[in-house]
Amino acid sequence: MDGNVTISDATEIQKYLVELVTFTDEQFLAADVNNDGEVNITDARLIQQYIVS
Question: CB–CB of 28/51 below 8 Å?
Fold first, then answer.
């Protein structure tokens, strides 16, 4: 939520998926990169792809 897209964002999604962290509604919307209504590994992968491109 700092305005920067980094590997930490993908890591937070992975933590969310294994229930180590919870997201606020705002964080959930930001994490749903492909806007499909779900936060899943695809969103983390899209962030990783964005970073390396």
Answer: no
